[in-house]
Design brief:
Layout (H helix, E strand, L loop, with lengths): L5 H11 L5 H7 L4 H10 L22 H8 L1 H28 L3 H11 L9 H14 L4 H9 L2 H6 L13 H11 L7 H10 L3 E3 L5 E3 L9 E3 L2 E3 L3 H10 L1 H15 L6 H14 L2 H10 L16 H11 L2 E3 L2 H11 L21 H15 L14 H9 L9 E3 L1 H8 L4 H8 L6 H8 L6 H8 L9
Antiparallel strand pairs: 1-2, 3-4, 5-6
Helix pairs in contact: 3-15, 4-5, 5-16, 5-17, 6-7, 7-8, 8-12, 10-11, 13-14, 14-15, 21-23
Length: about 475
């Protein structure tokens, strides 16, 4: 029976989730690697959509923006948009709560991963919530069906202008990004392929409910030539032809490898998982293969990935349960570190890896545990450019103390970690190899309590890596 040591289990759960609770680790540690992996996937089989209470918008849900403007007037319509945008922040908060609390953590981690592949942004709360749940539903499913579902989403249709794609005036934006960013990568298609595939997606739109709608009078039913094939192709046909290219499987596997294994790609391993994925485009199969592979647990793949801001935030909460009393402060932290969920910077998404770290963000990230867990003061001079809603919030409310309003469950932490030897706590919290200076610093600390030591460990550079 193939056993896993503590370090390997933690490595798996940092890649497949956001770290692991010590009680759960102790519970599964006697299991074999296949058993642990099987449980990880079985816990994520159930699909639980993320649903906000949007009852206040029910009466206007199925009306177009133009109809609402005419009915309500410009001023009332703008107030409605502001309320909808506030709900977007609520969805952001609910998403992070889900990441922090779900038993189906692999599905949630995969949803986060795919959100930075099929990048989309939309202020329409019904449409973006639907889009978000399409990511979750397909996160461990069939990639072919996934791409076809994404191509039909109202939010994507708006974001990449496919709603404006008509027979007499094709809009190439979606067709271009479909190949460049979603499936093949730049240089693996021609400009003619873009033009012809754009024709295949003409007339693809959505109704007021956000459901897919083919406007037949705007669709080009004539013959197209795409990747050397001729036919009266529609959008689904284009996607099928794209997936016939092994480069599609390689492109996605390259993204998977960098996110789940190592930012530096081993080309032999990449070809190995590409062959697995290309057989059936089954996401669950390729992820099971990766997590089961002996090379996944090689030392060179452990403690080498810079945590994204969301991984950092949720990882802290995995060890010390904490709740934010003000949602705007939660958004503020994301903004400071450069990753606000539902607000990707552009269609390419977040670059990840070393782009998370610069002189400003590193200092802020190293203070994060103190800010959240120890009521440390926020230095507002450190922040960069903010959207007005965040900026105004922190500049105008001058009478408030500049610290995060959080409720910490130290009682839960102490029950689980209070009796650990400091060395055990260190090995549990920090995954990467310690720098000599850091090791010297930690060895010289006067450790008064595991509570204080936990914050200190979360404040060293090595905690930024998993």
């Amino acid at each position: 029976m193939l056993k896993m040591n503590q370090r390997h289990i933690q490595h798996l759960y940092w890649r497949a989730g956001f770290g692991i609770d010590i009680n759960f680790l102790n519970k599964i540690q006697s299991n074999s690697r296949p058993q642990i992996i099987e449980e990880l996937f079985s816990d994520s089989e159930k699909i639980i959509p993320l649903q906000l209470n949007l009852s206040e918008f029910t009466s206007i849900k199925n009306k177009s923006a133009n109809a609402l403007k005419k009915e309500m007037g410009e001023q009332a319509f703008q107030k409605l948009r502001q309320r909808s945008q506030k709900k977007l922040r609520d969805l952001n908060h609910a998403w992070i709560e889900r990441l922090s609390e779900s038993d189906g953590i692999l599905r949630e981690k995969m949803t986060l991963f795919w959100a930075n592949i099929f990048v989309c942004r939309d202020n329409h709360i019904f449409h973006i919530q639907q889009y978000h749940n399409t990511l979750r539903e397909n996160a461990l499913g069939n990639f072919r069906n996934f791409v076809k579902s994404i191509a039909r989403e109202a939010s994507m249709s708006k974001y990449l202008n496919n709603k404006q794609n008509r027979k007499k005036s094709p809009n190439e934006n979606f067709a271009r990004e479909l190949m460049e960013l979603f499936t093949l990568g730049i240089g693996n298609y021609s400009e003619e392929d873009i033009k012809e595939s754009a024709r295949a997606f003409t007339g693809w739109s959505f109704n007021n409910k956000g459901g897919f709608l083919l406007k037949k009078h705007q669709h080009d039913f004539d013959e197209k030539k795409f990747f050397g094939k001729k036919g009266n192709f529609n959008g689904d046909d284009i996607i099928d032809i794209i997936l016939e290219q092994k480069q599609c499987a390689r492109f996605i596997c390259d993204k998977i490898y960098k996110y789940f294994v190592n930012p530096i790609v081993d080309k032999n391993r990449l070809e190995e998982i590409t062959s697995i994925f290309y057989k059936d485009y089954d996401i669950k199969n390729v992820m099971t293969y990766i997590f089961s592979a002996a090379w996944f647990y090689d030392d060179q793949n452990i403690g080498v990935k810079i945590k994204s801001p969301i991984e950092l935030l949720v990882g802290i909460r995995t060890i010390v349960p904490v709740r934010f009393e003000e949602k705007k402060q939660f958004n503020y932290l994301q903004k400071m570190m450069g990753q606000v969920l539902l607000y990707p910077p552009n269609v390419s998404g977040w670059k990840g890896d070393k782009s998370w770290i610069n002189s400003n963000t590193l200092m802020f990230r190293m203070k994060l545990a103190s800010l959240i867990l120890n009521n440390a003061i926020i230095n507002l001079e450190e922040k960069g450019a903010f959207e007005d809603s965040f900026d105004t919030y922190y500049k105008n409310v001058k009478k408030r103390n500049r610290y995060l309003k959080t409720s910490k469950r130290w009682d839960v932490f102490l029950k689980k970690y209070g009796n650990l030897h400091p060395r055990q706590l260190r090995d549990f919290i920090v995954m990467s190899k310690l720098d000599f200076d850091t090791e010297t610093l930690l060895d010289g600390l006067e450790i008064k309590s595991n509570k204080d030591f936990c914050i200190q460990l979360m404040s060293i550079p090595e905690y930024q890596i998993c």
